[in-house]
Design goal:
Structural class: alpha/beta
Order of helices and strands: EHEHEHHEHEHHHHEEHEEHEEH
Helix content: 25-40%
Shape: elongated
Radius of gyration: 24 Å
Low-confidence stretches: none
Distance between the termini: 54 Å
Number of domains: 2
CATH class of the largest domain: Alpha Beta
Length: about 325
Amino acid sequence: MAKAIALFSGGLDSILAAELIRRQNIELLCVTFTTPFFNAQKALAASRRINLPLEIRDITSEHLNMLKSPRYGYGRNMNPCIDCHTLMLNIAGRIMEETSSDFMITGEVLGQRPMSQNKQSLYVVAKNSGYHDYILRPLSARLLDPIKAERENFIDRSQLLSVQGRGRKDQIRLAAEFGVKDYAPPSGGCLLTDPVFSRRLRDLLSHHQDLDVRDYELLKYGRHFRIHDHCKIIVGRNNADNEALRKLATSNDLILTMASFPGPLVLVPYGNDDNKKIASALCIRYSDAPDNIKANVLCRRNNVSETILSVGAAKEDCAKWII
């Protein structure tokens, strides 16, 4: 029996691509990836629904190296889609070799994304991955050149499809035919396509060289304020943010909370004493303390605590600092 690796996002297209190949009596292993910018939740749920094995790999290190200087640049935000797809296919190709599989598949549809899924982009991604002759796109295969597995009759090309464009009528019809009923609505699922997250990421990369994974995780929570080149302050927006920031905090950070009023958790990553007054003012500004009164803020760093009396930051300063 032939074996294939399915690059699997858990979206409808990747589900249908997997079903097309499974119905040709080919053994499939689904593979999905995680980084600080996307997770495996949708893929895991979908693989369980359609009863296919799923391998989850954390590719953070390789992905961050690529993200800092993508060969083909970024999309509208900080999304390096062509370079990201190239990296994923390269890693999937390595898994293909590790498992002695014969080829790999993706759910890509020709023309669905004008910039990253036109014929030229699909060719570039496949070529640069190092596995050009092993990458099958079952939904659009009959519009593309046959790969090695087709030429060697591992796959019946006549049972593959010629779907193209941004519409989903063909996929919805096929889903009904295959009995696929429960699938997620189309969505990117990648934080690098989000404008707010992308602004924060650009700011982070422009001010810091040596970063660890936590620095990227912090971008997901709270309001972010750039006070100067060496100081960023994060203010929780709600209880969920506060708890997430608390879990990501280290003893070397400045952590501030209100003493007498409900309010946010404020985090100054790698904070120092010069940042206390502004961080306290932001803590009060986004708390339930009445405007224009002094309030006490509890400040802790390296297991040393103190109380700071301050007033809330001015609205114009918040607008100037916010990222």
